[in-house]
Write a structure and sequence with these properties.
GO terms for molecular function: transferase activity. It is a single chain. The protein is of the alpha+beta class and 186 residues long. It has one domain. It is 18% helix and 32% strand. The chain contains 3 helices and 10 strands. The protein has helices at residues 22-36, 105-108, 116-129; strands at 3-7, 10-16, 45-46, 59-60, 66-73, 76-83, 89-96, 146-149, 152-159, 165-172. A 4-stranded antiparallel beta sheet has the order 1-2-6-5, with helices on one face. The longest helix has 15 residues, at 22-36.
Length: 186
């Protein structure tokens, strides 16, 4: 593990993937962060909500006591974990700060593509919601610390991560302590 930070009840860590590969590095990072929460858990499992395959999809830590999320950029993996009592779901996203977002133009037309900070915030919320890009990313307003999708609320923060990267994390209620709960917008 190259780095770790606590943001409220959420532990966020990062590691290199070059020596062990993406999946092995991500699984090891999730186990290390879960252990820092005082929970001994077996390796995470995955199940794709669209096709049901177990070789991809959102990671789940067996035992149900922890919620988790992973993201990869270049040779970096970032993981976020929180006790289930503090968050119902998590989403984390990492991108190189130098990444151009022009490849997102088609997703956002006729508006301009978002900047990298905004894009990581959108991705984190879409992961936490479990919807992924099945939800139109243009419909996600990430300008504030709380994002609403239908009846769900997500606390949202951009945090310090590995040098040269932008990391955002979203947590579904119950609040993961990213910020105090705000009243729902009407």
């Amino acid at each position: 593990m190259k780095g770790v930070l606590r943001h409220g009840a959420v532990l966020i860590g990062w590691a290199d993937t070059a020596s062990t590969g993406r999946r092995a590095s991500g699984d090891a990072l999730l186990r290390a962060l879960t252990a820092q929460l005082g929970i001994d858990a077996p390796p995470p499992t995955r199940r794709c909500p669209s096709c049901g395959a177990g070789d991809h999809g959102m990671p789940e830590v067996p035992g149900g006591r922890v919620v988790a999320s992973l993201s990869y950029a270049d040779e970096i993996v970032v993981a976020a974990v929180a006790p289930r009592g503090d968050a119902a779901a998590l989403g984390v996203d990492v991108e190189s700060a130098a990444r151009a977002t022009g490849d997102l133009t088609a997703f956002f037309a006729p508006r301009p593509a978002p900047g990298i900070r905004e894009w990581t915030r959108i991705e984190a919320v879409l992961k936490a919601s479990g919807r992924g890009v099945r939800t139109d990313p243009r419909s996600i307003d990430v300008s504030g610390p709380v994002v609403h999708i239908g009846t769900e609320a997500f606390d949202l923060a951009t945090v310090v991560g590995p040098d040269g990267y932008v990391v955002s994390v979203a947590a579904a209620a119950p609040s993961a302590g990213l910020r105090s709960r705000a009243p729902r917008r009407r």
